[in-house]
From TrEMBL:
Domain Glycosyltransferase RgtA/B/C/D-like: 174-316
Protein's name according to its UniProt entry: Glycosyltransferase RgtA/B/C/D-like domain-containing protein
Pfam families in the cross-refs: PMT_2
InterPro entries named among the record's database cross-references: RgtA/B/C-like (IPR038731)
Alphabetical UniProt keywords: Membrane, Transmembrane, Transmembrane helix
Transmembrane segments: 21-48, 68-86, 98-121, 175-204, 216-236, 242-258, 263-279, 308-328, 457-479, 486-505, 511-531
Highest taxon of the lineage: Bacteria
KW Membrane (keyword) present: yes
Length: 543
């Protein structure tokens, strides 16, 4: 009998350990789903009531609660229309392929129209990056440090060395400059148009791969038609829009990996991810979400293949760092001279200025505090850590201030339905020796979009869309919480990671726009579910 026990016990013990590991994976997934439900429902209620605006076209944030009742009425109207379309089976009958192609055409036509109508130029970071590309393309360039603005960008301790994550984008701009010369900015705008169209198209594909439900996919595509901020960002010659289609493609390919269990999909997914991160390194939260999903899958299924994917993700991320370093050395810059991350956390915890009393933790120029000739990494790290310690001390000594700080910071990030998209083409201040965008001559149509009735209408419609995205996502995660597989939850956990990151990091509402973009497939599904429930209620009332 004793011999029998000694033979049987080890396998049983191993089974128990494997069961515990699987239980941990299931527990993490359940926790992530319920955290998402709570997060989206709370932010949805806040978004309904509060709206963040920047009416003077600076970073001066203002809050309003005037339009919540109109947003609620419009949301009910949208759900009613979807209910009618679903009841008459129109959502099911719409040809998804045709709708996708129409969406692409709409995005290209509207995007080109907006670029022509806005008729602006690059400013702030997009200007510095493009200026660096132009200057480094000039073989006769001779820097004088300190010197003019070009010197400030390229000299040791200047803009690019302290922000090395911009360097891959500089090389991209150099490539465009080599082909298009003085038309580089216009070429960049057109590439933004194509990337916007690709992003919308891929969101439909993401919905299709996640849910395999035609009505959900078609509603996702319809929501993309309404997402005007991404169209408005076409004038923003920066990495944000360029990165989006690659990151959405990475999510689609990860879903494909889980469906087919073939490593090649994971590898191609990570290639797309690295390209996206080279354009916009701050979107690392997508990588974090994908790794979390692979970790949960590895724990649940005890899969070696998922473990390999985690290792590959780390390797690919390190590779992106090597690419950035090689790019810096190609331009003759020091890749190891970037500002410490503590600088951005320090800024994200600093008090607002008197001129912008609601801008808690927003960009305030702190990373540019040190002139290139006084750029000392060790001293900068000491000063930024001291700033962080002072902020923490202020929070401890005054809990009411801490609540005000983080609540207003969160509100200003998550309740701006335009995500600074119109600000990007209508700044009311400028850099050195450049005209002020908001003072350029504009058409009556453009004036109305920035200041008049069209502006009020756009703000109201985008406010409604923002609420619907949050509401629809909440509905999907709640009603499908028991059905959602691990490969389906990335769009739900990405915004969670972003919320945690940007509570501490420098705040801007433009940084939060990708969270709403990845919500669109879940929101499309949730609005159809809501429309069906609405139809059932109406039918009961009628009967």
């Amino acid at each position: 009998m004793n011999t029998e026990r000694s033979t049987i016990s080890p396998p049983r013990e191993k089974t128990k350990k494997l069961f515990r590991v699987s239980t941990i994976g299931n527990g993490i997934q359940t926790l992530a789903i319920w955290a998402s439900i709570i997060f989206f429902s709370i932010v949805g209620m806040i978004s309904l009531i509060i709206t963040t605006t920047m009416p003077d076209y600076t970073y001066n944030v203002q809050f309003t609660t005037r339009n919540w009742w109109i947003v609620l009425i419009l949301s009910i109207v949208v759900v009613s229309i979807l209910s009618l379309l679903s009841h008459k089976d129109i959502l099911q009958k719409i040809d998804t392929r045709v709708l996708s192609h129409v969406l692409v055409g709409y995005s290209v036509i509207f995007g080109v129209f907006w670029a022509a109508l806005a008729n602006v130029w690059p400013e702030w970071d997009p200007f510095y990056v493009l200026k660096a590309a132009q200057a480094t393309s000039d073989p006769s360039l001779q820097l004088q440090c300190p010197g003019d603005e070009v010197s400030w960008i390229l000299c040791p301790g200047g803009y690019l060395e302290r922000s090395p994550y911009q360097i891959p984008l500089v090389l991209f701009d150099k490539f465009l400059y080599y082909i298009f010369g003085t038309g580089t900015y216009l070429a960049f705008e057109f590439i933004n148009v194509l990337c916007t169209a690709a992003t919308f198209y891929l969101l439909g594909k993401l919905a299709e791969y996640i849910f395999s439900e035609k009505r959900f996919t078609n509603t996702t595509l319809l929501l993309c038609f309404a997402f005007l901020p991404l169209i408005f960002y076409i004038t923003f010659a920066y990495g944000n829009t360029l990165a989006l289609p690659f990151l959405i493609a990475a999510l689609i390919l990860q879903v494909n990996y889980f469906k087919n269990r073939q490593l090649r999909y994971a590898v191609i997914s990570l290639v797309c991810l690295v390209i996206g991160l080279l354009f916009k390194s701050s979107m690392i939260y997508v990588l974090a979400a994908m790794v979390v999903i692979w970790i949960i899958a590895a724990l649940k299924d005890r899969s070696l293949r998922d473990g390999i994917c985690i290792i590959l993700a780390i390797v690919f991320y390190i590779t992106s760092g090597f690419i950035t370093s090689a790019s810096a050395e190609y331009l003759g810059l020091n890749p190891n001279n970037g500002e410490p991350k503590t600088v951005w956390i320090a800024m994200g915890l600093q008090k607002p200025s008197k001129s912008s009393p609601n801008n808690y933790g927003w960009y305030n120029g702190y990373p540019l505090k040190w002139a290139p000739e006084n750029y000392d990494l060790s001293q900068i790290e000491v000063e930024s850590k001291e700033s962080i310690k002072q902020s923490i001390s202020d929070f401890k000594n005054d809990p009411a201030y801490a609540w005000t700080f983080f609540s207003k910071k969160f509100l200003s990030e998550w309740t701006d339905p335009l995500y600074e998209s119109l600000l990007a083409s209508n700044w009311s201040h400028r850099g050195n020796d450049r005209p002020i965008m908001s003072e350029r001559e504009i058409s009556p149509v453009l004036h109305s979009i920035y200041y008049g009735k069209a502006n009020k209408m756009i703000l109201l419609l985008m406010d409604t869309l923002q609420f619907l995205l949050l509401f629809g996502t909440t509905v999907t995660v709640f009603y499908k919480r028991k059905e959602l597989s691990i490969h389906q939850i990335a769009p739900a956990i990405i915004p969670l990671g972003m919320a945690l990151l940007y509570l501490l990091w420098e705040a801007q509402s433009q940084y939060i726009m990708p969270a709403y973009i990845v919500m669109i497939p879940f929101a499309g599904a949730g609005l159809v579910i809501t429309a069906d429930k609405f139809s059932q209620v109406i039918n009961r009332i009628k009967s």
